[in-house]
Backbone:
């Protein structure tokens, strides 16, 4: 209604109508605040351009760096021999050339020391598990320790110490052993044999322990010819 003036609280407002939200002819497309004005909009084309370039390829890792990482992970669990680390690297596809370079360097700085490993292994396994030299030699061979290096480490475990350990193992088992003396005797000799003790050492350790246990066991022990049994076991082995 042209010419009509809007009435205000103080009188009549003769100013022309403002272009804004009160203007019924104005649409949301005309409002820069709603449309974002002239700001550029990211459309499908930009995303498609990015997708067309494909994923970014990772930078190939240096083989030497990977080999060192594998070795350190192995050594974090327990000390390893050179042969054990070489086997772990081979399983991960590390080339022989890179493996040798990394392991040679570890040898130089003392990270790998098969002699020290062998000495520590003999001490730990004998004191902790009561293993004799024969069993320990087999374990060191399985871990790739050179025969000469293993022999030097095993030389620190003398026969007297081995015999004392065998007797201590038998005494501990006898506390809970049940059955007739002959059955107990066979079980204990078998236990020592599995730990690598020679027949003579095993038989004497069990015989002496039974002799000190009870009158019945001592009577049975008196009938045991340790030397003859040891010879028989040696021939059988």
Residues:
């Amino acid at each position: 209604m042209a010419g009509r003036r809007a009435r205000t609280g103080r009188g009549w407002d003769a100013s022309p109508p403002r272009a804004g939200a009160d203007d019924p002819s104005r649409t949301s497309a005309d409002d820069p605040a709603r449309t974002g004005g002239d700001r550029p909009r990211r459309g499908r084309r930009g995303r498609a351009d990015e997708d067309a370039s494909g994923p970014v390829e990772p930078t190939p890792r240096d083989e030497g760096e990977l080999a060192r990482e594998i070795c350190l992970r192995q050594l974090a669990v327990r000390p390893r021999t050179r042969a054990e680390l070489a086997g772990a690297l081979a399983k991960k596809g590390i080339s022989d050339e890179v493996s040798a370079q990394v392991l040679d360097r570890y040898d130089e700085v003392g990270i790998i020391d098969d002699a020290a490993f062998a000495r520590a292994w003999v001490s730990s396994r004998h004191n902790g598990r009561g293993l004799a030299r024969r069993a320990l030699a087999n374990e060191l061979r399985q871990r790739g320790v050179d025969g000469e290096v293993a022999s030097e480490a095993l030389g620190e475990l003398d026969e007297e110490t081995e015999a004392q350990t065998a007797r201590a193992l038998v005494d501990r088992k006898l506390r809970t052993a049940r059955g007739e003396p002959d059955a107990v005797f066979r079980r204990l000799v078998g236990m020592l044999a599995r730990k690598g003790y020679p027949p003579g050492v095993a038989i004497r350790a069990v015989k002496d322990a039974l002799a000190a246990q009870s009158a019945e066991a001592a009577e049975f022990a008196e009938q045991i010819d340790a030397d003859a049994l040891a010879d028989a076991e040696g021939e059988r082995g």
Remarks:
- Confidence is low (pLDDT under 50) at residues 1-16.
- The CA atoms of residues 1 and 17 lie 12 Å apart.
